[in-house]
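User: I've been trying to design a sequence by hand for this structure and keep getting stuck. Would you show me what you'd pick, starting by listing the structure so we're on the same page?

Assistant: Good idea, let's start from the same input. This is the structure you sent:
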């Protein structure tokens, strides 16, 4: 895929904060996620990154996603994800901490203990 084909990939414009880890730099850096597609994103922030650097970005509702810096221009940069994601999930309202019991399953109702079992 050449550069002109990359521009045809559907992407969602959004403004969401995210955390970025850069190989070779200590700690996490707060960045603005400007747009997002299944294969990558554009970020903006004061962290200095170099093209080709390995990174990991914490995308809301998705979690930490590994990628590589594809381009850098001033304080903006592109990240190509190692594995595709579903960008619609990042647009959903932020999920709260997981409940004790998964939402798909209800606790079993108490079972009345019958008398002794009969033999067949």
């Amino acid at each position: 895929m050449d550069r002109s084909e990359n521009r045809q990939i559907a992407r969602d414009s959004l403004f969401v904060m995210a955390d970025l880890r850069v190989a070779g730099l200590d700690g996490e850096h707060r960045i603005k996620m400007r747009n997002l597609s299944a294969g990558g994103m554009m970020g903006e922030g004061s962290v200095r990154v170099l093209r080709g650097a390995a990174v990991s970005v914490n995308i809301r509702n998705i979690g930490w996603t590994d990628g590589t810096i594809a381009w850098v221009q001033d304080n903006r940069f592109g990240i190509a994800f190692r594995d595709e994601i579903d960008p619609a999930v990042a647009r959903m309202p932020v999920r709260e901490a997981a409940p004790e019991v998964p939402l798909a399953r209800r606790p079993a109702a108490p079972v009345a203990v019958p008398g002794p079992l009969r033999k067949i």
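That's my pick for every position. To get oriented when you compare it with your attempt: The radius of gyration is 22 Å. Residues 69 and 79 are 5 Å apart (CA to CA).
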